[in-house]
Amino acid sequence: MITISSPFHHVDWRWRRWMTATLVPLVLVALFFAGYWPRRSAQKRLVAESSAVVHDLPLVKVAAAVAAPGSRSLTLPGSLTAYREALVNARATGYVARLRVDIGDRVHAGDVLAELDTPELDQQLDQARAALKQKEAALQQAMANRDYARVTASRMDTLLAQKLVSKQDYDQANAQNHIWEANVRAAQADVAAAQANVRELVQLVSFGHVIAPFDGRITQRNIDVGSLVTAGAASGASSGQPMFRIEAVDPIRVFVQVPQPFALSVKEGEAASVFVRQLPGRVFDGHVTRTAGTIDPSARTLNVEIDLSNPTGALLSGMFAQVTIAVGLAHKVLRVPSSAVITDARGVHVATVDGKGEVRLVAVSRGLDNGREIELVDGLNGGEQVIVNPSGDVSDGMRVQAVRGP
Question: CATH top-level class for 88-211?
Fold first, then answer.
């Protein structure tokens, strides 16, 4: 049997094969776009929504909390004070007869500052001296009577042995001798008391010369010739003021208040330098002489004294100075911008921003503040992103968009 192939059948097979090869990719492409395109559109919508949300968040400028060096030169305000200072008052009552010094004069220990006219004391001294002479004369009289009584008693011993006097006369003579011995001792005590009185008045009269207690400079004079001064009282021209004020300023002292974080690193003998704005270009070198050894609970500072050589008197007592001391840190200290610290009824905080853009309020303890940066001694670990200028409504959990400052 012979089979004859139809040309139409051959064409139909080819057509089906071509259609299959063409339609299958088209279907696959259609299916791909049918699944991908909705996802892509949804992703675009999510990105757009996220961008809109981010753009709606408040922008905040942040800065990293960085660690401060372990040691530094600490510059603090200080006050210059005289090494020695005395308020000179009168030790005698009288009128100012003569002034020997005035403000600004340099004096030495023992120099006479003023002379007082003390007529009452002079009269008392004359009277005391006269009384002393009376006591001395009475002593001489008592000694003569004692000597006479002693001789009489000795004679009575001889006469009694010869039975030429009675026992009563003998006893009377010896008793009289003892009485005059006692009178002599009493007269000697009177003389000693009178001498002490004279010495006291001589000393008081000498106080009419007001003298300098040490080398220094007169910084106050509150009396004038004719002023009445009273012993033991501040009796200057104005009530409650001393006659003179004297200061010794070589060396001169500088007192500075060191904050508690650095107090333990300040030791006696530590080098220090002092700068006074009114003396540009000059730096005065000194050393820590002593510390108070206790923290002032009201200011949390340690009072430190520094001594400076001042032979020319260029540094004046009462001046304001800048004191630089090398100090170390006993613990980690971080620096942040001064404007980042929030102080309110809740305490002292800084606002940090975490990796999710959420705000966290962290309680901190402040250290030194130079006006631009402040040191924090507790609360942060370092590296935190701190909001530089937090707004008044900043709160925990608040979402923000952080921008690093320049």
Answer: mainly alpha
Cβ neighbours, 10 Å, residue 308: 23
pLDDT in tens, the chain (406 residues): 444 444 544 545 566 666 666 666 666 666 666 666 666 666 666 555 544 444 578 888 998 888 876 666 788 999 999 999 999 988 888 899 999 999 999 999 999 999 999 888 888 889 999 999 999 999 999 898 888 888 888 878 887 777 777 888 877 888 888 888 898 999 999 999 999 999 998 988 888 899 999 999 999 999 999 888 888 765 444 456 789 999 999 999 999 999 887 888 888 888 899 999 999 989 999 999 999 989 999 988 999 999 999 998 899 999 999 999 887 666 677 889 999 899 888 889 999 998 888 999 999 888 778 788 888 878 888 888 999 988 888 888 888 988 886 6
- Domain range list for the chain: 1-55, 60-68+333-404, 74-81+248-328, 88-211
Q: Which residues of 390-403 are buried (b: 16+ CB within 10 A; e: fewer)?
A: beeebeeebebebe
What is the CATH number that goes with domain 74-81+248-328? 2.40.30.170
